[in-house]
Specification:
This protein is of the alpha/beta class. It folds into two domains: about 230 residues, Zn peptidases (Aminopeptidase); about 70 residues, OB fold (Dihydrolipoamide Acetyltransferase, E2P) (Beta Barrel), CATH 2.40.50. Helix content is about 20%, strand content about 35%. It contains six helices and 18 strands. The strands form two sheets. Strands 1, 2, 3, 4, 5, 6, 7, 8, 9, 10, 11, 13, 16 and 18 form a 14-stranded mixed β-sheet that branches. Helix 1 packs across helix 6. Bound molecules: zinc ion. The site of zinc ion has 4 residues, from loops.
């Protein structure tokens, strides 16, 4: 397919699995909203309907418009799935927040974070309606959801999963993704939380850094998703345990500076830090140390700031507190 015949892809307003021939791969433009000159805004949807409808698994990427690693994960996943052998249905959205993606930014057109306002509101403002229609037209159909993210601008992330580990099916999914770290979190307003409210087993997967493609992160996430589909009995193969089991955390938080200046953060991603260990210093522009920051408790570095220019209150690192 070339750019010339992209317009041959059918436009739909809702997902109708029954209308899709079994054992086939289909591409669609799903209409969500329209812009200021009345032009429809579509999101791309790829549906692989297997030989039965055992489970409906959704995989979404780029709900934050500059979080790109999930896009090739989905593209490569589709290339690896044989629809004549798949048991179940995959509904994949390689770019979920299209307006933000086109503007190379995280947030929606009205400055709202789509992953903080879920499940949206059908009578709300621009972002509310976009969120509401995404949920009611796609997410609502699913049994499982894997929502792919990265760190935000200026930060980097390990390969980690956020999940409600109190739910056994969700905990199992989180483990089968074979991440470096699993963080137990509820996180109201997120797509994951809204999906969970609808009875969908949902996890968020954080795949490294924003604004770029990272080969090792992309292949780890792809392997993790294939492993999960094996675990759900949708594709053949043995479920692989991680060579290094994930570090499970029952909480996490960001450390922030309380002094502006240039910040230097020392630990690497997935490093363990001890309580009291120096993790960062803030300098003024002449090179004098203004403040030194220590880990308030022992934990693992889930993510960190890599952008040195730091306003008072800027991020230092995302500390995970491992389960005892
Ligand atoms: Zn994100």
């Amino acid at each position: 397919m070339t750019a010339d015949n992209l317009d041959e892809i059918p436009v739909i307003k809702a997902i109708d699995i029954e209308s899709i021939p079994p054992a086939s791969v289909q591409r669609y433009w799903l209409y969500l909203t329209s812009d200021g000159i009345g032009t429809p805004q579509y999101i791309p949807v790829i549906i692989v309907r297997g030989i039965n409808d055992k489970h409906l698994v959704g995989i979404t990427a780029a709900i934050h418009g500059n979080e790109l690693n999930g896009i090739p994960v989905i593209q490569r996943l589709i290339g690896k799935i044989d629809p004549t052998k798949l048991e179940g249905v995959l509904i994949c959205i390689p770019v979920t927040n299209v307006p933000a993606f086109l503007r190379k930014q995280r947030d929606f057109l009205d400055g709202k974070d789509l992953n903080r306002i879920m499940p949206g509101n059908q009578l709300g403002n621009e972002s509310d309606i976009y969120a509401y229609r995404l949920i009611s037209r796609v997410i609502n159909e699913l049994d499982y959801l894997i929502d792919l993210h990265t760190a935000s601008f200026g930060n980097i992330n390990s390969f980690y999963v956020r999940a409600n580990m109190n739910l056994p099916d969700v905990a199992q999914m989180a483990c089968m993704l074979n991440p470096q770290i699993i963080v137990h979190k509820k996180s109201e307003g997120t797509l994951r939380y809204a999906a969970e409210d609808l009875g969908i087993h949902a996890v968020t997967v954080e795949i490294g850094d924003p604004n770029r493609f990272q080969e090792s992160m992309i292949s780890n996430a792809l392997e993790g998703i294939l492993n999960t589909l094996k675990g759900l009995g949708m594709i053949k193969g043995k479920v692989k345990a991680a060579t290094q089991p994930p570090v499970e955390c029952d909480g996490s938080y960001w450390l922030h500076t309380n002094q502006g200046g240039l910040v230097d953060v020392y630990p690497e991603l997935a490093d363990f830090v001890e309580q009291g260990e120096v993790v960062a210093r803030v300098y003024n522009v002449f090179g004098d140390v203004l403040e030194t920051y220590q880990a308030p408790e022992s934990g693992i570095v889930i993510g960190k700031n890599t952008y040195p220019v730091n306003q008072t209150g800027g991020r230092i690192l995302h500390l995970g507190i491992p389960v005892d």
